[in-house]
Backbone:
């Protein structure tokens, strides 16, 4: 008969995991608290300590960022780039992922490798190579603010494809397609009215992840001289360090809330998920 495991042994793995989570929380939260104090406390930096922890907190530094005349155009451009990148990458990857699952299952490893290539190629190498070609043959492309959309779509491809792939594997794709086709629906109707509603959570996940990539990317926008929100943030922080830190912290919190909203929507009981968070 196997010896029974003592309660102390059963508790030790749980205690170890809790200590790891606590250490990670301290590692990430303490710098954010330090950022918050520098950004929102109207106290000289040399006097920031335990004795001044609750002194002179204010949102004035953040207000200076919001009232800056360059902030609105930068935010508007980043939102336009995020929307364009989401539409482009969904238009390319959603039909591709569905076609691979339906007709070319043996090609899945190849497609997965291709979508990982943005991890291998650094963004600076990507933009230098592509920009050198387009400056000669299509300068009108690089002169447009929307030229960043293809670059951002490539950067978001690893996240987007895996979100869509996980959502497709979570549903009975072949049964849904066969049932729709047997009722006389065309491919367009099948995708739009049958598959897209069942992949709603996966599409939301890929959209949120793509928007997060766009709102945080600096290298490509800086090399192509585009005034997006990240490049504006660097310029503004050099001019007003406290206001720039407040804006950076606000952007971080907004992105966390966006991801939290996605998790709340996809995990709400009674809603079709079509996406397994544990597989992503």
Residues:
């Amino acid at each position: 008969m196997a010896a029974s495991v003592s309660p102390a042994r059963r508790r030790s793995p749980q205690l170890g995991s809790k200590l790891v989570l606590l250490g990670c929380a301290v590692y990430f939260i303490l710098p954010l608290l330090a950022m918050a104090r520098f950004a929102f406390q109207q106290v000289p930096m040399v006097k920031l300590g335990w004795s001044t922890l609750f002194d002179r907190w204010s949102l004035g530094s953040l207000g200076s960022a919001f009232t800056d005349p360059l902030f609105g155009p930068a935010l508007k451009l980043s939102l336009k780039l995020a929307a364009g990148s989401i539409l482009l990458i969904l238009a390319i990857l959603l039909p591709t992922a569905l076609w691979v699952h339906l007709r070319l299952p043996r090609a899945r490893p190849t497609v997965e490798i291709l979508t990982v290539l943005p991890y291998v190629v650094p963004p600076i190498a990507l933009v230098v190579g592509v920009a050198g070609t387009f400056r000669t043959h299509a300068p009108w492309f690089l002169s447009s603010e929307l030229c960043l959309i293809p670059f951002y779509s490539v950067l978001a491809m690893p996240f987007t494809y895996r979100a869509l792939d996980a959502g497709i594997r979570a549903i009975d794709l072949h049964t849904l397609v066969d049932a729709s086709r047997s009722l006389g629906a065309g491919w367009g109707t099948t995708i739009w009215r049958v598959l897209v509603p069942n992949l709603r959570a996966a599409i939301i996940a890929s959209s949120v992840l793509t928007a997060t990539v766009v709102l945080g990317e600096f290298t490509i926008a800086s090399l192509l001289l585009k005034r997006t929100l990240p490049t504006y943030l660097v310029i503004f922080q050099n001019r007003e360090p406290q206001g720039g830190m407040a804006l950076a912290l606000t952007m971080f919190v907004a992105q966390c809330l966006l991801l939290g909203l996605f998790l709340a929507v996809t995990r709400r009981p009674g809603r079709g998920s079509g996406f397994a968070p544990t597989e992503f």
